[in-house]
Design a protein that fits this description.
Distance between the termini: 37 Å
Number of domains: 2
CATH class of the largest domain: Alpha Beta
CATH superfamily of the largest domain: Glycogen Phosphorylase B
Radius of gyration: 20 Å
Strand order of the largest sheet: 11-12-10-9-13-14-15
Length: 357
């Protein structure tokens, strides 16, 4: 097939999981062109494998100090530019459009009547999953931001719904030795100074804090590092715990590796607050809703986390799409969940948990 693949570039999680699906599709012989939107091209890192690709402005949310800035978000919208970007693809032939919550590709599919499939965590919110609050406006955005004919939602549990486990990139778990006291920190929506002040209070731990810095440098027990997938992955493999926002992909990788997980959701963002709720209800991670010293101290003293082993979901998706989606969505998702390996002490999450929804 000739496939147009749209990737939301505002979060590295979208890029990470799309990379795995893209590789599997190309290995199956499909011709794939990629669209990125939501981040300037000069701020994209680790995307060489996606070529050929096109970068558009798209839509994105503006976040200030861990909270969505609604006036700045509205001011940043460029609807006329979006219309021009969509119109530029009129008349080009594609057999399928895939969108990972990317609005330009989704609307190219709609306007040109091309079959479309959505892949991403946001699409799980179309089903009965844990919600931190009933927010009709946020749910409306999640439904219409990047719509598709078929939605493949991703989550840490199926909640008796036709959704899939997380897409995990290949992680050589035993290649890097574990370093006691080493904590990986990725909080891109928080003020760097606020985060550093909190981390400095725990001098018996070393924090590898990935932030928008030009060069790596150490500030006491806080090791600041610029963004870069190779170094980030090495620190993820060797750390004992991860502190991050309540996005989906990094938390999924931490669970897959058996890393202790503490998330701080972006205030006012339904997806992240609901992710934090789900992690705690499934007893797979901790949450804090501010940069809370006491909460972090309790988390640092907590036992090691269980490891949840997820299968190769990207390959399963590529195989399903290549087969023409002959297997029903219910049967397909059920077969993938049967391959998840839960730790014995968390065997209860193997079963559907409708009370959480």
């Amino acid at each position: 097939m000739k496939i147009l693949y749209g990737v939301q570039a505002t979060g590295n999680g979208h890029i990470s999981r799309s990379r795995e699906v893209l590789v599997a599709l190309r290995q199956a012989g499909h011709d794939v062109h990629v669209i990125f939107s939501g981040r300037p091209s000069e701020q994209l890192w680790g995307v060489e494998i996606f070529r050929p690709f096109t970068v558009y402005r798209g839509f994105t949310f503006v976040v200030s100090r861990g909270r969505i800035n609604i006036p700045a978000t509205v001011f940043s919208l460029r609807p006329l530019q979006l219309r021009r970007d969509i119109a530029a693809w009129k008349g080009r032939h594609f057999d399928l459009v895939i969108t990972d919550f990317e609005p330009v590709s989704a609307r190219i599919a709609r306007q040109n009547r091309i079959p479309s499939v959505a892949i991403g965590h946001q699409y799980a919110f179309r089903y009965g999953i844990p919600l931190a609050a009933w927010d009709p406006a946020a749910l409306l955005v999640l439904k219409h931001f990047a719509p598709a004919d078929i939605a493949l939602g991703l989550h840490w549990h199926h909640f008796d719904q036709p959704i899939l486990p997380p897409i995990i990139p290949p992680l050589p778990r035993l290649a890097t030795p574990h370093m006691p006291g080493k904590i990986l920190v990725y909080l891109p929506n928080e003020d760097r100074r606020d985060v550093r002040r909190m981390l400095h209070q725990f001098s018996d731990h070393s924090f590898f804090f990935y932030s928008a810095v030009d060069q790596p440098y150490n500030d006491g027990n806080v090791c600041l590092r610029p963004y870069g997938r190779a170094a980030f992955l090495e620190d993820l493999l060797s750390c004992e715990g991860v502190i991050t926002n309540a996005g989906f992909e990094l938390a999924s990788e931490a669970l897959h590796l058996g890393k202790r997980l503490l998330v701080k959701p972006v205030a006012g963002q339904l997806e992240q607050t609901s992710n934090a709720l789900a992690l705690e209800r499934l007893n797979l991670g901790w949450a804090m809703h501010s940069l809370d010293r006491k909460r972090m101290q309790a988390w640092l003293a907590s036992p090691a986390s269980p490891r949840v082993v997820f299968p190769n979901v990207a390959q399963a998706i590529a195989d399903w799409l290549s087969s023409g989606m002959r297997e029903s969505l219910d049967d397909f998702t059920r077969s993938v969940w049967s391959q998840v390996c839960w730790p014995n002490e968390h065997s209860h999450v193997r079963q559907a948990m409708p009370a959480l929804a």
